[in-house]
Amino acid sequence: MTNVPAAFLQGGARTYEVLNQKYENILKFTVDQENFTVFPQMVLFFEFVGNNEYMLAQMPGMLQRFTNTELFLILDDSYEGLADEEFMQMFKHALEQCPNIKHWRILSSNAKMKDICNRVFGDSKNFLYFNIHAHLTEYDSLNVPNHNFHVNTQLRAKKFLCLNRQERLHRILTVDYLLEKDIAKHTFLSCMLGEYAGLITNDAAVKWSDNDKSMRKFLDPDLNSLELSQEQKDRLSCLPLELDVTESLHHAVKVNMPNLESYFNQSYFSIITEGDFARGSNRQMFTEKVLKCFLYGHPFVVIGLPGTLELLHDIGFITFGNIIDESYDKELDDEKRLEMCWKEISKLNSLNMNEMKNVYEKLMPVLEHNYQTYKVINSMPEPSKLANDLISWYQGD
């Protein structure tokens, strides 16, 4: 057992929790956050969640007490995947002011971070692709290792499931499309009102500054330029559409998400509106929204970043190109990609419920493969490369 002293630059870090869980018999961290005891060698965790860039400016001053400590810094971007090239330039500048940080790694769920590191640092040797969503054993009332694959063979109540929580341009446009095309009546559909209210009621529209980092997680800057027609406002006046989260809780820092098994079991396809859609040239990732579909046996159209399906294929999943035109995944133009996704949803919606059931049943081998693949990935002790690097560093190998 290697016992390594550790500290957090701010709060906690999800990768720290996963390392503790996956390597409990090999690697252990000693954290004395209250007294902040200094050791000759320490691991420092910094989880970036999209609105804490200011910590980089504070880091050199905060680390003054560690002058005689050799630090191994772990920049944890494995959940949100929000670190961009601008942030990495700031990170590089902060490292230059902290000579006692002898080693560092960035773990990111954004597969494009490798390219960003190559541009900023001249190499990507410190980048590790790690999508922590795939390795969390428990989340949103789910226990992945103990989950069993149950298929509802009866005729289901709805064709689609489409969940929308935080405000995003592609989400409000997709909800409006489902309402306009009368697809919503065939859909278990949720959409909060939140910051959309001003856009719908003719009051002050959603406006926020790019410098307002405190709201970065919750608001989509592309909403600033959205102008709804009167027809759209009339359709969207039905918001909020509550299903999994109530309007009063949708901006809560932490929400215990309800179990959605009944909605999955009573619908055939998911319309996944991922957390991010635009500005995709430097981002490629997926979240738990896709993984839930694998766990519950749901085929899907994913309205997300370009290359989302490509990334899923690369790690062993099979998607649904035999019944869905998945060329949308390669389209870099956001508007065109969105329209391509809608077109596939409309094609599926043209099926009656019995036809939808038949299509679903033909996909069963793929759904079972994805379920088993997810279970295997989730059970793997990752991030193994980071664990090995930490042990080798601490033991002086």
Structural summary, described in words:
This protein has 14 helices and twelve strands. With 397 residues, the protein is an alpha/beta fold. The protein has a six-stranded parallel β-sheet with strand order 2-1-3-4-5-6, with helices on both faces.
Keywords:
14 helices, alpha/beta, 2 domains, 397 residues, four-stranded parallel β-sheet, six-stranded parallel β-sheet, single chain, globular, Rossmann fold
List the helices and strands and how they pair.
Layout: E1 2-8, H1 14-22, E2 27-31, E3 41-47, H2 54-62, E4 70-77, H3 85-96, E5 101-108, H4 113-121, E6 127-129, E7 138-139, E8 142-143, E9 160-162, H5 169-180, E10 187-189, H6 197-201, H7 230-236, H8 261-265, E11 269-273, H9 288-296, E12 300-303, H10 308-314, H11 334-349, H12 353-362, H13 364-379, H14 384-395
Parallel strand pairs: 1-2, 1-3, 3-4, 4-5, 5-6, 9-10, 9-11, 11-12
Antiparallel strand pairs: 7-8
Rounded mean pLDDT score: 91
Given the structure, what is the number of helices?
Answer: 14
Count of spatially separate domains? 2
**Largest sheet, order of strands side by side?**
2-1-3-4-5-6
- Would you list the SSEs in sequence order as H and E? EHEEHEHEHEEEEHEHHHEHEHHHHH
Q: Main beta sheet: strand number and arrangement?
A: 6 strands, parallel
Poorly predicted segments: none
State the secondary-structure class.
alpha/beta
Span between termini = 15 Å
Radius of gyration: 22 Å
